[in-house]
Amino acid sequence: MKTHTSHHSFSKTLLALAVLAAYAPAFADDAEIALLTRPSSSISVGVGNTSGDASGRSIFGQYNGLRTDSTTLQLDVDINTRDDASGTALYIKGNNLGLDSRDLSLSYEKQGDWKVGAEYSGLVHREIRTVNTGMIGAGSATPTVVRLATPGTGADLDLSAKREGAGLSMEKWFSHSLQFEANVKSENKTGARLLGRGYACASYVCNSTQTATNQTWALLMLPEPIDSITRQIEAKLNYHDKSLSITGGYYGSYYTNANGSIRATVPNQLNNPLGAPSTLAPAVSGTVIAGGGTSLQNVMQLPMALAPDNEAQQFYVSGNYRFTPGTHATFKYAYTRATQDENFAAAGLTGAPAGVTSLGGVVDTRLAQLGLTSKLTSQLGLLANVKYERKVDNTPDALYNVEGGAVTPAPAVPSIATPSQVNRYWYNYHVDSTRIVGKAEANYQFTGSTRGTFGLDYNMVDRPVPISITEEELAGIGAVRSKNTETGYRLELRSNLAESFNGSIGYTNSKRIGNDWTSLSNSAAFVAAGLGYGTTAPAGTFLSLNAANAFPMNMADVDRNKLKLAASWAPTEQLEVQLVTEYGSDKNSMPFNAVALGKGWRESSTRLVSLDASYAVSDNWRLTGYASTGSQNLMVNHGTGYMADLTSPTESLGLGVNGKATSRLELGAQLTLLRDTTRYGLLASPGTTGTLPNITQTAPSAANLAQATIGLPDVRYTSNTLNLFGKYALDKKSDIRVSVLYQRATMDEWSWSNNGVSFVYGDNTTVKLNPEQTVTFVGASYIYKF
User: Fold this and answer.
1) What's the CA gap between 86 and 110, in Å, rounded?
2) Which of 597, 603, 607, 600 is nearest to 639 (CA)?
3) CA angle at 462 for the pair 459 and 467, rounded to the nearest 5°
4) Which of 200, 282, 429, 624, by CA, is between 20 and 30 Å from 583?
5) How far is CA 623 from CA 12, 582, 742, in A?
6) Which of 69-78, 200-209, 472-481, 598-607 has the lowest mean pLDDT?
7) Distance (Å) of CA 522 to CA 420, 525, 529, 533, 772
8) Is 702 helix (H, G, I), strand (E, B) or coil?
9) What is the pLDDT of residues 504-559, one digit of tens each?
10) How far is residue 521's CA from residue 524's CA, in Å, rounded to a whole number?
11) Is 451 in contact with 445 (CB distance < 8 Å)?
């Protein structure tokens, strides 16, 4: 329950004390001097106790290892030894060794010659919410869903995910110019986390008529089983001389998941909208879709894919070259191959295209970077940098995608021989892309205290777009574009306005535009206008055919602005104050129909104001404090008839005091207040009537108006934390440290619980959280220094 910081070199304080000791032998003996001039070590051992039960401290204990056990061992080690004769040193660092969230590292080295190291780390994240369910095998790859007769009568399930990492490293200097480094890391993840699946019957899959006895949708909580290993290997050779520094190396990442999919067993009865048991919808007949559909029960039992095994290997060379003392260049070239070829059947996945046993995924990436920095005069400096990245997806094409589609023209009397819909198949989409990023920057020293920076930025991305619906099909959006280019500029001015005051102001502006848009529609109106699937046209053409067309936010034209102000004021040696304020906004600048209004994402913005202060009351006591307020805002005009204005304001305040009450007693206190809110501004948006270009605006629907009137409650999180500590020096080599932490946290979230009523899944599984949690932690440790 404390932050433990160690250093391999002497602090300024220790160096100063060592100098004083050398020139003032009357105040220190040889043992004290030796203690100050050699690496110090310490071991801290103690016990901590946390109040309440596990559910009452789930927020407090989600990461720190203090949720499950009330009484815990507090153990830290910091061992530093050095052999002056051989020049070798051993460092052992361990933090929170008595908890399941711990870390331990070891380093043994001969400075300037070689170094070997090992490390271990553990971290457990415990879900703050408790799941109550009748499910058998929850958290496994093959759970069995059991509907509870009444919500809350099942078994409580506390989900957690554990990470354990281990690593080995080494360094070897062959000469003063040549060094070799290598390290191997492995991280094992186990446990389970919240996940779910749901489906509402499509007309060509299962019966889509909702009745008192026929359930056409289902939603289930199916925890994701976690059992994976990530291994990383890196080896590199470093060379440097007076002009050239260069590194060549290899980096490999290998991910293995023991669970390829979740394959749940689901009963044929789940909740209807009133919470009563209802039979899941049967499959539609062959008159609707060729071969017939499948039942809702079978849909919910289909295997759900989890992250597949994959690996990536990179070879790279990077470095810098100094042409003159004021001019140098940087460079890098890297080649990366990423592959994913896990066997579908071994992962529990069925229905692959004929003759295809795995994705056979291969993505090759080549990256080249070149930069130049030059100090032209004592006042003017220039910087230029360009990066080129080419990503090529060499994954084989196969007909992975299938979706029902209406037969055109529709049969007068659908039958098994002439159904109204048939399956349509298309290939997997490739992720090729080319990206070029560049910047140029000039720095000018106007006066001894004032410096200005002017920069230009360029970012271009080019990717393939579908040209044939028979090969690749994108659904859910109207159009895509292949190329975006973003250009912008930056201005910054820094100045020391007075001996005690300095500040800076910076402004950034950029605009993202792109080429024409590629149609993803085969409707009669688009085809008649020569804008069928795969053809391109300006955005205005799409709006003339579909006034409510929404353009994808990652491809849309955008105007970006950001303003930042910073100041530091130190009127006396005792007082220092720092202020930072930022404001930024991204606005959708795509054209839109003035009657239908712009659809999709419209604008997002951020705001931050923070103040930090420090005051030295005396040589022994110091006060610190900070306050900040900020918010994030997102505005969306959804195509279903509502406008959302989501705002997330956050306020925080911290006050601290620490110092020495006596020569042996050190005291400290820290108060932290946090308020985080998500507000759901909701309005009903108008509709349109008529045909383009002659359309008029209509009032919002009654249903949307009613929902907007009701609105959505805020989601609020608050945390008030008081941390007290005291450390008493028993003698020169041992201390006693006592810590007391009090935290009160509240979480008010309507998505899982509203007015005391829990959200209920189709099998009556519920997810609950103690909304008001108060925790007190008391810890005492003995610290021995040697």
Assistant:
1) 8
2) 600
3) 155
4) 624
5) 22, 26, 20
6) 472-481
7) 18, 8, 11, 5, 54
8) helix
9) 999 999 999 999 999 999 889 999 999 999 999 999 999 999 999 999 999 999 99
10) 9
11) yes
For residue 216, CA distances in Å to 273, 284, 292, 628 come to 10, 12, 17, 49
Four-CA torsion 157, 161, 164, 165, nearest 10 degrees: 180
User: How far is CA 592 from each of CA 478, 481, 539, rounded to the nearest angstrom?
Assistant: 14, 17, 9
Interatomic CA distance for residues 716 and 331, integer angstroms: 48
Judge contact between 198 and 217, C-beta under 8 A: yes
Q: For residue 741, what pLDDT band results from cuts at 50, 70 and 90?
A: very high
Token code pair at residue 541 = 């053409």
**Cα separation of 744 and 700, whole Å?**
43
Tokens, residue 682? 């909701």
| Adjacent-strand bridge partners of 727 | 666, 737
Q: Which backbone phi and psi does 545 adopt, to 5 degrees?
A: -100, -30
Cα–Cα distance, 782 to 370 (Å, whole number): 54
Per-residue DSSP letter, 26: G
Q: Are 194 and 171 in contact (CB under 8 A)?
A: no
What 3-state class would DSSP assign to 604? strand
Number of alpha carbons in the 13 Å side-chain half-sphere of residue 489: 4
Beta carbons of 519 and 481 less than 8 angstroms apart = no
DSSP three-state, residue 463? coil
DSSP 56: G
Give CA–CA dist 549/599, Å, rounded: 7
CB 626 within 8 A of CB 612: yes
Q: Cα–Cα distance between 242 and 511 in angstroms, integer?
A: 42
* Single-letter amino acid code for the residue at 18: A
Torsion sign across C-alpha atoms 698, 699, 702, 705: positive
3-state SS record for 373-437: EEECCCCEEEEEEEEEEEEEECCCCCCCEEEEEECCCCCCCCCCCCCCEEEEEECCCCCCEEEEE
Rounded Cα gap, residues 166 and 60, in angstroms: 27
| Reported pTM | 0.89
Three-point CA angle 592, 594, 598, nearest 5°: 40
